[in-house]
Amino acid sequence: MSGKTPQPIRGTQDIFGADAESFAFVVETFERVRRLYRFRRVEMPVFEKTEVFARSLGETTDVVSKEMYSFDDRGGESLTLRPEFTAGIARAYLTDGWKQYAPLKVATHGPLFRYERPQKGRYRQFHQLDAEVIGAAEPQADVELLTMADQLLNELGIADGVTLQLNTLGDGDSREAWRAALIDYFSAHKAELSEDSQDRLERNPLRILDSKDPRDKAFVVDAPRIDDYLSAEAQDFFAAVTGGLDAAGVAWSRDQALVRGLDYYRHTAFEFVTDRLGAQGTVLGGGRYDGLMESLGGPATPAVGWAAGIERLAMLVGDRAKDQTVTVGVVAESESLFAKAQEVAFALRREGFIVEVEYRFRKPNKAFPKLRSSGVNVFLVVDEVHLKNEPAQPDVRISGALSEIPNSADLLSRVGRCLVNRLGASPKGNGDLAAVWRL
After folding, report:
1. 3-state secondary structure (DSSP) of residue 225
2. Does residue 164 contact residue 336 with C-beta atoms inside 8 Å?
């Protein structure tokens, strides 16, 4: 059947080449860092019952009302492709018996789905890293999560120019008192607010504080601040978080306009932001959501977590993800030695070397440019040596400027040991540091 080739769906992406390497580098770094902090790896379903997200995110939020990919399955049940990780993890905590492991530290990553306008660093199928601590009411859990996030950004090499912005939403009583004060204040200016903020006034007044509309900003400046409504316990909690960050050497700044609109958020709210991604400046964000479990029918359970967009992190990483290790290309001098070159390549890979080979024989002078363009920076050439009155014997020699290779002596030694141990080769020259080995 012939016809027009189907085009990719708007808001999706085919990740390839350098972009894919940056993406993989972000995920690999996250996996390494989460193990340092003893976060357990979990895998979550890509879809859940719609009520999981409707109840956790709120029926009136934009995510639920406008952005979720929801559908009825063949049994007539409403299902939704996950728009975020936290709700599914909270559901699993309640239904899968994970309460026995509290305080539970889990981490995951994968694709999420939201129907929103695609723009730089934002897609309809996008990918996130996610880390959660469930069952810990202590501020030290917040500190550990933030320290982990800071270390991740540092190990990705993108911490410069990224700022941790921090705020407190107080405990339940503090938040309710602040919310009532905001409603009173903004109600006096309701007619002059944007349409979105007028709609949010009664049901979600905290969201007016982070409005980007100039009509709202004029009134946000003088709006009531959470600090005026914090209980003593909430003040102590925030002080413990900021003190812990100071002790860990994590720089932060206070942003009193940083809020979370949903009622189950408590205490710490935070974002790591940069000006290098245009309007989409948040690269990692999260907060404490002590009331979420109750919205899903579970007992009151303290919890805190964060998520980070892999695409945005990969954009910041850029060519830092370029592999700095040695990539070895193995070529044969003649077609009769092509199979031997493949044997050498397989042996090197089993010893942990990164190796590139071609699928058909080509003379080294033709093979070198193509392999070099793919990232090869040192070559092993399988050649044949003819000695007087002796049958021809294959050998392997290094080709390339070893002076340009980091730790070239170590490279020679490792290659030599591999060829000797795997293929029974004998070095010609200075033992392990020989540049030619007889097979």
Report:
1. coil
2. no
Give the residue-averaged pLDDT of 323-334.
82
Q: Which of 305, 283, 4, 385 is nearest to 133 (CA)?
A: 305
Residue that the structure tokens 């793919």 belong to: 374
Query: Looking at 82-207, which runs of residues are DSSP E strands?
Result: 104-113, 125-134, 163-168
Q: How far is CA 129 from CA 108, 132, 251, 271, 308, in A?
A: 6, 10, 22, 14, 5
Locate 403 and state its tokens.
Answer: 């002076």
The structure tokens listed for 281 are 């400046």
Q: Which of 260, 165, 166, 255 is nearest to 205 (CA)?
A: 260
Cβ neighbours of 101 (radius 10 Å): 13
Q: How far apart are CA 6 and CA 22, in angstroms?
A: 27
The more confidently predicted of residues 205 and 89 is 89
CA pair distance 305, 288, nearest whole angstrom: 7
Please identify which residue in the block is written with the tokens 């490279």.
Answer: 411
pLDDT score of 217 more than 70:
yes
The CA distance from 123 to 383, in Å, is 51
DSSP state of 4: P
Structure tokens given for 185: 């204040």
Length of the chain: 439
Q: What sections of 158-225 are H helices per DSSP? A: 172-187, 195-203, 214-220
Cβ neighbors of 233 (< 8 A, separation 6 or more) are 171
Q: Give a three-class secondary structure readout of 288-302.
A: ECCCHHHHCCCCCCC
Q: What number is the average pLDDT over the span 394-420?
A: 71
Give the tokens for residue 438: 């007889």
